[in-house]
Amino acid sequence: GRGKFKGKPTGKRNFSTPEEMAAGTSAKPRTFRREEEVEEESEESEVESEEEPEVFKKKGTQGVIEVENPNLAKAKGTKAKDVDVSEPTELSRREREELEKQRAHERYLKLQEQGKTEQARKDLERLAMIRQQRVEAAKKREEEKAGK
Questions:
Q1: What are the C-alpha distances in Å from 133 to residues 109, 114, 126, 129?
Q2: Per the domain annotation, does 67 fall within a domain?
C-alpha cells in the first residue's frame, strides 16, 4: 500500500509464559508507571550515594544554558486570609484613565451649567437672539391685530 503508515508491529511481540507471569519475571513490565517508579528508585539510590545531588537531567542544551524565560508569568497564589483590606488597591492604567475621563467630563458639565465654557456662552447668545426674535414677532402680530 501507499504511504508511510505501517500497520501493527506484529513481528515484535513478546509473550510471557504463565510461569514467568506467576514468578513476576516477565521481560516487559506490566505498566509504564511501574517502570518509571523502578527508574526513580534507582536514581534516588544513586543520588544518595553521591555527595552532590544532581538536579533533574535536562535534554539537549537546556542543561548547559540556564536562562529564565522573562515572558513566563509566574502564578501568584494569594489567599483570602492574607489579603489586607485596609490597604487601598492600586488601579491599573486603564482604570485610572477611565476615572480621569469621568472627572474631566463632570468638571466640564459643571462649568457649562455656570456658563463659563465657550460652548455655553455661544448657546446663551443664541438663546438671547431667539428670544429677541420671538419678542419682535409677537409685537408684529399684535400690531397686525390692532391694525385690522
A1: 28, 25, 11, 6
A2: no
Q: Residue 133 falls within a domain, yes or no?
A: yes
Q: Is the pTM of this model over 0.70?
A: no
In order, the DSSP letters of the chain are: --SS-----GGG-----HHHHHHT--SS-S-HHHHHHHHHHHHHHHHHHSSSPPPPP-SGGGTT-----TTPPPPP---GGG--SSSPPPPPHHHHHHHHHHHHHHHHHHHHHHT-SHHHHHHHHHHHHHHHHHHHHHHHHHHHHHH-
Asked whether residue 18 is assigned to any structural domain, the reply reads no
Calculate what percentage of the chain has a pLDDT beyond 70. 67
